[in-house]
Amino acid sequence: MIFRKTKICSMCQKRKSRDRFGANKSRKDGLQFYCKICVQLSDRNDKLKYKFGITLIQYLYLYFLQKGCCALCGIAEKFFKHKLGVDHVHGERGPDAVRGLLCGPCNGWLLPMLEKVPALQNVLVQKYLKNRPLCRVVFLDNGNDE
Question: What pLDDT digit, counting tens, does each position of 58-68 carry?
Fold first, then answer.
């Protein structure tokens, strides 16, 4: 069987070279329906929906609002090993629970310590802890699959 050098991704509808698709032995052409980039974006969106109740669009909106920097320390994401993490009010889910995006050190030890010891909190930290940026924005896609 002769295969074309390109294929159209079923998700983004763009024609791409065959090496941009993952393998799928059960398909005639031996390739996945979606390109690797669309699979990554879909997986990221699913993870954000499951863990925090927000979509990838909402995450990117926060990222844009914060100019790619940690909401507490202000250091740019590019200086950290990992992406900025979603900080949320524990026990709550959805956009209303999200406070912002934090770097690993702020999310892992600084913020938990500041939450436990109010005497260490300055005005900026207190303002951040009350922050709910996604409450003020209406998204067309609210993360529901209905």
Answer: 999 989 989 99
Q: Domain residue spans in the chain?
A: 8-52, 53-136
Average pLDDT over residues 16-34: 92
Interacting residues of 112 by C-beta distance below 8 A, sequence separation 6+:
none
Helices (H), 9-74: 36-52, 56-65
Which overall architecture, per CATH, does domain 53-136 show? 3-Layer(aba) Sandwich (3.40)
**124 Ramachandran zone, left/alpha/beta (phi>0; psi -120 to 50):** alpha
Average pLDDT of the segment spanning 81-102? 83
Residue of 143, 94, 87, 140 lying closest to 115 (CA atoms):
87
Alpha helices, H only, the chain: 36-52, 56-65, 104-105, 111-116, 123-130
- pLDDT (mean) for 21-36: 91
